[in-house]
Structure formats: structure tokens, C-alpha cells
Specification:
about 250 residues, alpha/beta, Rossmann fold, seven-stranded mixed beta sheet, 10 strands, about 25% strand, globular
């Protein structure tokens, strides 16, 4: 049985570190978006890989926002900025379905919150893969689009987007409008089954990404769900040609 611990997770290497360092240099001043930041764990990992980057962590839940702020201080990640909203395809307010719960086979005194990592703008549909998950609360949260965020912050290009939004991936991407073409790399979740109502499936995400000139260069999908890493072929022409055979590992 794996025993989970927040410090151990945050201090471990990101599974995407090797791929990112093939595309960017450690001292590059990157613009990184962590959408669905939860406690800021991934943002802190990226801040260690690229200490001169500007990282924006989007998280709409107040409880998680406090954890992000505490972790920024604890791990001295001063290049991270908390953006306390959800990212969607429309600006305004939206219902947000809050997850909670704890697996029966895990000790209750762990320094790890299993339940706070599955909240979504979409209502849950299928929790059979994690029967301990509970969705018994929903609130209204503020939403913004990437298009408006880029304009308001005068961001012309984004180097990397880490997205963990539990089925709302296409809402986020479609909200970027034409500016999606100015994103260089994207790491996001995909699923072959509908865990949330009206969730786009892996084939829908792949079709959208292909249409917008993104190519898969890493895929960690097992059992019908997982993550994919995409590069924008307009920025990485040489990688788009050679990646499948030589550069990245495709599962």
C-alpha cells in the first residue's frame, strides 16, 4: 500500500521534468499556467525546475487557496501567483461541484487530502472508479477565460500549461479562442469514459488539439484515463517531425 505525504509529493521530481528540459532551458523566463492548481503542488514543482519563470496558479476553492498560499511560503516559491478563480469558456459565475472523501484503505491521519482533487465545473456522473469520492456540495465560483486573462495581463505567449480540471479541458481551451495558438506546450488529463456529465472524451480532446496544430509527444494513459503532453507544431517544427521516433516516448 502506498502511503501518501504532501511534502514527499511536492519534493519529488515532476514526471514531466525531462520532457520540459528538452524544450526549455532551466534559466529561461517562462510563463507557466497551472489551471486547477488545488494546493499548488505542481506549481511548486515547476518553480524548482524553472526558478526564473512566472507561474500563475488558478484555483477557485477558498480552502485550497489558503493551502496554495501556505505552500508558496513554506517552499519559498516566490515566482508563483495565485489567481483565485476557475478557468472556463465564459466569464462570470458558474456552479462548482466540490469533491471530498477518504479511501477506506488509507490511514485517516495522513498529511494528504485525497478528496479535494476531483472538484469540477461539471457535475459528476461516474464515480465507480473511486467509490469513496463524495460530491455533496456545490457553490458558485467566479470564472474567467484564458483569452481575457491574456489580454488583461498583456501576455502574448504562454510557454507551458498544466491543466487538471476534471473533465473541463475543452472549456478551458475553447475559452482561449485564437490565443490557444500562442500556447507552446500543454499537459492535460484525458479519459475514455464520461466521469463527469458532458465531459469531452479523449478522442474529442485529441481532435481539438490536432485541429489547432498540437501534437502528442507523451501519453501516460492507462485503464481509460491519464495524461497527455502536447507541443505546438508552429513553435517546435523539428520536434513535431522527429518526436515519435526519437525524442519523446509515446505509450
Amino acid at each position: 500500500m502506498t502511503i501518501y505525504n504532501r511534502d514527499n509529493y511536492i519534493l519529488a521530481e515532476s514526471p514531466l521534468k525531462k520532457e520540459l528540459l528538452k524544450l526549455f532551458k532551466k534559466n529561461d523566463k517562462l510563463t507557466i499556467l497551472d489551471i486547477g492548481g488545488c494546493e499548488g503542488e505542481e506549481s511548486i514543482r515547476y518553480s524548482r525546475i524553472f526558478p526564473f519563470s512566472s507561474i500563475y496558479t488558478f484555483e477557485p476553492l477558498l480552502k485550497n487557496q489558503k493551502l496554495v498560499e501556505e505552500n508558496i511560503i513554506k517552499y519559498k516559491a516566490g515566482n508563483i501567483e495565485l489567481v483565485p478563480v476557475a478557468v472556463s469558456d465564459e466569464e462570470g459565475f458558474s456552479q462548482f461541484y466540490i469533491s471530498s472523501g477518504h479511501p477506506e484503505d488509507q490511514p485517516i491521519d495522513l498529511d494528504w487530502d485525497f478528496g479535494n482533487k476531483s472538484s469540477s465545473l461539471l457535475p459528476p456522473k461516474n464515480t465507480s472508479l473511486a467509490s469513496w469520492l463524495i460530491f455533496d456540495k456545490k457553490i458558485n465560483v467566479q470564472t474567467i477565460t484564458l483569452d481575457s486573462f491574456f489580454r488583461q495581463n498583456k501576455i502574448n505567449e504562454v510557454d507551458f500549461v498544466h491543466m487538471d480540471v476534471q473533465g473541463a479541458e475543452l472549456k478551458v481551451l475553447m475559452g482561449a479562442k485564437d490565443a490557444v495558438k500562442n500556447i507552446k506546450t500543454i499537459w492535460l488529463e484525458v479519459a475514455d469514459i464520461e466521469l463527469y456529465k458532458n465531459q469531452p472524451l479523449r478522442v474529442d480532446v485529441e481532435n481539438y488539439m490536432k485541429k489547432n496544430d498540437f501534437q502528442i509527444v507523451k501519453s501516460d494513459v492507462e485503464g481509460g484515463f491519464g495524461d497527455q503532453f502536447y507541443i505546438n507544431k508552429n513553435y517546435f517544427k523539428i520536434f513535431s517531425f522527429f518526436s515519435r521516433m526519437f525524442f519523446f516516448k509515446i505509450k
